[in-house]
Model the fold of this input.
Amino acid sequence: MTKMLTSILFLAVVMTGCAAWLPQAQQKQSGSVVDYLYGNKAEPTMKPETTTLKLPVRVGIAFVPSASWNRSGIPEAEQMRMLNKVKDAFEKHAFIGGIEVIPNAYLRPNGGFTNLEQAARMFNVDVVALLSYDQVQFNDSNALSVLYWTIIGAYLIHGDQYDVQTMLEAAVFDVASHKLLFRAPGTSSVKGSAAMATFSERARAARLEGYNQALEQLIPNLQKELDGFRQRVKSDATVRVEHRPGYRGGGAMDGLLLFVTLLLGLLVRRVRAT
Done:
């Protein structure tokens, strides 16, 4: 009887320890642009109806900070790597004068446009692309998890499965007018399984892979939206485009100048022919 009771108590202790090792059913990481810009109810909302963009545009790129203390976000080094990839997408356009990567330390949770304006002045940018993220990792254990009660099984048996769903979005705002100029999304889904002893490491790698895949989808979408915005702005009465002193980039005035130059060339040819 004593041996049986001892065995039951030992098994209970082992099962309790194993249960503590098992991954949580769900893990979430998020940084919301809505929470960051509009979470502060005292934030003023009245701004000019007309947005003025001065070419070449100076652009800042940043991740929005997470508002929840108990939700881990994307590691700082990974954020900087991803932001630099987005920077490369912007740099291909001649009408963009400079691009600054804004580290997360300069943005505070629920900081609103007041905080965004402070960061924009510090980095001397007119427009800021805010990257928001929402990632959920679902975990599930199958019947093979019983083998986790042995050390060998914990390393060899793939009894735990993960499903990582990721969403990234770049929302581009004019800082002075608070106007949302355009946005571009990217999503991904990464699934896999791992033994209990290596589950945390495998799941962490899957989360990073989820962000990378979402970013690879976001960048071409961002390029497409940027090109579309260039076309829309020509007929948008709420957006006025001006040139900075010394800027000779492409635009309507350059097209008109080219047309006039060609017309004058034809006239000169006719005069010479007569």
